[in-house]
């Protein structure tokens, strides 16, 4: 059974950066305003994330890493939304099947923190023997520690690149979430290093965060627009769900060798080749050959519109009204770019 779970877990957690993505989303879901990531050997030896979010109740610790444990379903209506990205409550369980997972957590109302360790979904120390949560010192919030990722799945381990390649993927994920969450302060560093590779302050704006993380050359040339289904005051009948989008995109003055595209759908970092292609095509008519833009797009759609058949970690998503929404966003961006060009 453990072997089957391990294989399933490897389908969800592909590499250190995909584990980190899940952990970051959990910290953000827990309303953290400070997130600190620490990494050793590209995340293969150690991946640690400390947040100042709501913490986890001690009573929830025994089942925390069991599959389908989620605190995010509180009503029957939420159950419908379960389909958001086709899965819920699988991330920590998956991580525990392919690593040595431990948690230190404290809620505001707890007088001390609690530490728990997991193997294969259950409370257990590294040698696999059963354990119980232990009281310890700690700040409000949660520290998740993932050690020796894929130690028990050699095929996954051998599919990884070197630690510097894995680390740069980690930095990429942290960077993108930092842009999308400018109200949260992020740091990311190699453990033991005094100077972080990423530090962002809390309370900045998306534009400031782009400037800080991707460079002022980009920030200087950023245009922005907001688009929504109700933009003209009417939700059209052919669009079944209301939606809205916020786009930051570079003017034709900025020309990169490769398109940088950040896409968040309902606050999850995802990929959509359709949207990317549509935007790329718009710029093809405007920029010289071989020049590409920077685009950040945050799309908010009702969770029920996201295709449940696509697994979340495949990242490529499809959603209801994809064609019309893509068209409208493209039209809005195009109109502004053309105006700029004159
Ligand atoms: P999901 O996020 O889909 O609920 P996960 O396996 O990612 O499932 O997490 C399981 C549960 O663990 C969450 O629902 C949440 O209650 C709790 N949890 C995980 N990480 C944190 C965190 N950093 N802070 C507070 N609670 C957390
Ligand atoms: Mg989660």
UniProtKB/TrEMBL annotation:
It is found in: Nucleus. Residues 210-338 form the DNA mismatch repair protein S5 domain. This is DNA mismatch repair protein S5 domain-containing protein. Transmembrane segments: none annotated. Belongs to the DNA mismatch repair MutL/HexB family. It comes from Phanerochaete carnosa (strain HHB-10118-sp) (White-rot fungus).
